[in-house]
């Protein structure tokens, strides 16, 4: 976990290598600007049905040694996805002007990430989840130094993972489980003690696909 002080003094990470994954300008170039123009990505076995709109912030932190992705671990007592690794985000409120507004609001509420440090780069395909949400991933470039203040009810910790690690196919593991009476397949990206899977891994794969095509 990165404390407020540690977020200011985070050590340099290994430079991102290969396929331009460390080139933040390239990431900005390949992203879709308008969510309405993006084809939705469905979790295994999920149909394109009436779902609640939501948005998450995909925060890519500009670190000297290479970009990282800021993730959170949800607290164990939550009803939805307890203990899972996630992006800051949540359901869209009627007062939110856009998915980007939702993502920024939720990031401020959950981890105290100030919008002044955040530069929206674009959107990834909507991600439709088995828990009933139509999620718009809002990719943003985050400029340190910044301090985080976690909502102790929702967020157990916040941490950073090298972007190059998450976008390396060698770290994409295939798993399966029985859910709602059928066998479902999913991708996971274990990183140390953290097991990154579900919608979070699916959204990361969306960025990997966009870069591969772009």
Gist of the model:
This protein has 214 residues and is α+β, with helices and mostly antiparallel strands.
What does this structure look like?
The chain crosses the membrane at residues 194-212. InterPro entries: CoAse, NUDIX_hydrolase-like_dom_sf, NUDIX_hydrolase_dom. Keywords: Hydrolase, Magnesium, Manganese, Membrane, Metal-binding, Transmembrane, Transmembrane helix. It is globular and about 45 Å long. The strands form 2 sheets. Strands 1, 2, 3, 4, 5, 6, 7, 8 and 9 form a 9-stranded mixed sheet that branches. It has a 3-stranded antiparallel sheet with strand order 10-11-12. The protein is α+β, with helices and mostly antiparallel strands and 214 residues long. The longest helix is centred in the last third of the chain and has 16 residues, at 198-213. Helices cover 21% and strands 33% of the residues. It has one domain: Alpha-Beta Complex (Nucleoside Triphosphate Pyrophosphohydrolase). Mean pLDDT is 82; it is low at 1-21.
Keywords:
214 residues, alpha+beta, Nucleoside Triphosphate Pyrophosphohydrolase, 9-stranded mixed sheet, 21% helix, globular, metal-binding, transmembrane helix, hydrolase, coenzyme A diphosphatase activity
Oligomer type: single chain
Please provide the ordered H/E string of secondary-structure elements: HHEEEEEHEEEEHEEEH
The unreliable regions are: 1-21
CATH architecture: Alpha-Beta Complex
The average pLDDT is 82
């Amino acid at each position: 976990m990165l404390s407020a002080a540690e977020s200011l003094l985070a050590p340099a990470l290994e430079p991102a290598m290969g396929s331009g994954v460390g080139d933040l300008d390239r990431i900005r170039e390949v992203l879709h600007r308008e969510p309405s123009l993006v084809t939705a990505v469905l979790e295994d076995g999920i149909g394109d049905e009436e779902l609640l709109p939501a948005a998450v912030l995909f925060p890519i932190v500009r670190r000297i040694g290479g970009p990282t992705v800021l993730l959170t671990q949800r607290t164990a007592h939550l009803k939805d996805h307890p203990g899972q690794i996630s992006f800051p985000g949540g359901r869209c409120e009627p007062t939110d002007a856009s998915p980007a507004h939702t993502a920024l609001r939720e990031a401020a509420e959950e981890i105290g990430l100030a919008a002044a440090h955040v530069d929206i780069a674009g959107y990834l395909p909507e991600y439709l989840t088995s828990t009933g949400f139509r999620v718009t991933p809002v990719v943003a470039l985050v400029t340190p130094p910044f301090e985080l203040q976690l909502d102790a009810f929702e967020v157990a910790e916040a941490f950073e993972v090298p972007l190059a690690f998450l976008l390396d196919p060698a770290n994409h593991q295939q798993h399966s489980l029985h859910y709602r009476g059928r066998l479902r397949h999913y991708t996971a990206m274990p990183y140390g003690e953290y097991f990154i899977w579900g919608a979070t891994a699916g959204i990361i794969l969306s960025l990997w696909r966009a870069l591969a095509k772009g």
